[in-house]
Design a protein that fits this description.
Blueprint: E1 3-4, H1 10-19, H2 25-36, H3 50-59, E2 60-61, E3 66-72, E4 79-84, E5 90-97, E6 106-109, E7 113-115, E8 130-133, H4 136-150, E9 156-159, H5 169-180, E10 192-196, H6 200-208, E11 214-218, H7 224-230, H8 233-236, H9 239-249, E12 257-263, H10 270-279, E13 286-291, H11 304-316, E14 321-323, H12 340-351
Parallel strand pairs: 1-2, 6-9, 9-10, 10-11, 11-12, 12-13, 13-14
Antiparallel strand pairs: 3-4, 4-5, 5-6, 7-8
The structure holds S-adenosyl-L-homocysteine and iron/sulfur cluster.
């Protein structure tokens, strides 16, 4: 079977080109074609000889994903992409324009797994269960397609699509490193955020390896018993363990850490605000509040007023907060609301 070229990092490509008697710099040129120029055909790589282009085409598949559908929100321009993998699974990515207050921020929210094994109660992806990890090339190809189809160059990446990135550590980190290449996408390490439900050993490894990317931790409840009801991960890796690890190690690491907090009606009381304040008394951490999206979860969605009261409560206590606007609500286009399977079924229904 042919291999996927986007699964190779620079070092591996240098190795490959050297083995076939080509110069090392071919690796850089190839990465430049794949990501900076973002071509979708080996024949377009005009600084390679015709023979080399043909050889690459015989040996490798350039793009592991095919685009199945694209939905654009009429409200805020958010774009949702449905991709099919070579083995007929579906994954989604989202292009978010002007996310939050930062001017000109263009974010692609990418998936790291087909489905997710973590079983969070509020999450659409959880309903699929775990199918498989995405390869490095499948992670990168989402960005290539979104850029080519939209004609827009994102300057921000969040691993907040389908899946738990820290259960696919090697491929996710390899892809992040490739995104950072100056001769590729050239995305700054400060613009790449990996979101996790809290896989303790992977967070520890990430810090110990001094990985430079931002981390977002999905907290979502201030009481362990309640968190356990909504996020089964709390049983194996209690959030307390993770916050202890971070307070012990953050002085050594320079990672930017945000806490994600999906707001339901029943986790935004004054007591919750107080507990949040206490939890992050010493840490230099920003709280990112996300209104719970509508979905198949039967959980109570807070009103605008209830959210405002909670934010006020936190602000009085000087907890640094930002609120994520619910993007692409007309196309279920928010991160955390992605379910390639469901979307496909809906699509089939529409086609009937
Ligand atoms: N598995 C990782 C990353 C993907 S989920 C994680 O859990 O962090 C990305 C974010 O979407 C998480 O913060 C998650 O809490 C949030 N999310 C999931 N379902 C949601 C929903 N129904 N409404 C709002 N946010 C949701
Ligand atoms: Fe997986 Fe994240 Fe969804 Fe939980 S919230 S099921 S960890 S994708």
């Amino acid at each position: 079977m042919k291999k996927f070229i986007k699964d190779y990092n620079h070092e591996e490509l240098v190795d490959f080109f050297t083995k076939i008697g080509e110069k090392e710099y071919r690796a850089r040129q190839l990465i430049n074609w794949l990501y900076e120029k973002n071509v979708n055909d080996f024949s377009l790589m005009t600084n390679f000889s015709k023979e080399l282009r043909k050889f690459l085409d015989d040996e490798f598949i350039l793009s592991p994903l095919t685009i199945e559908d694209r939905l654009i929100s009429g409200i805020d321009g958010t774009e949702k992409y449905l991709f099919k993998t070579f083995d007929n699974h579906y994954i989604e990515s989202v292009l978010i324009k002007n996310e939050m207050s930062d001017e000109g921020r263009l974010t692609v929210c990418i998936s790291s797994q087909v489905g997710c094994p973590m079983g969070c109660r509020f999450c659409e992806t959880a309903k699929i269960g775990f199918v498989r990890n995405l390869s490095c090339g499948e992670i990168l190809d989402q960005i290539c397609h979104v850029r080519r189809i939209s004609g827009l160059k994102n300057n921000n990446i969040v691993f907040m699509g389908m899946g738990e990135p820290f259960l696919n550590y090697d491929n996710v980190l390899k892809a992040a490193d490739i995104m950072n290449y100056s001769f590729g996408f050239h995305l700054s390490v400060r613009k790449i955020t990996i979101s996790t439900s809290g896989i303790y050993p992977a967070i520890e490894r990430f810090i110990d390896e001094r990985r430079p990317y931002n981390i977002a931790l999905s907290l979502n409840d201030t009481e362990p018993t309640k968190r356990l009801e909504n996020m089964p991960v709390e049983k194996k890796y209690p959030f307390k363990m993770i916050s202890d690890l971070l307070s012990e190690k953050t002085t050594a690491s320079r990672n930017r850490i945000t806490i994600e907090y999906v707001m339901r009606k029943d986790n935004i009381s004054k007591e919750d605000a107080k507990r949040l304040k206490k939890m992050f008394k010493y840490a230099n951490i920003k709280l990112n509040l996300i209104p719970l999206n509508e979905g198949n979860h039967n959980l109570p969605i807070p009103t605008k007023e209830e959210i405002e009261d909670f934010v006020k409560e936190l602000e009085i206590m000087n907890v640094p907060v930002s609120i994520r606007k619910s993007m692409g609500s007309d196309i279920s286009g928010a991160c955390g609301q992605l379910s390639g399977k469901k979307y496909k079924q809906e699509k089939e229904l529409l086609c009937k």
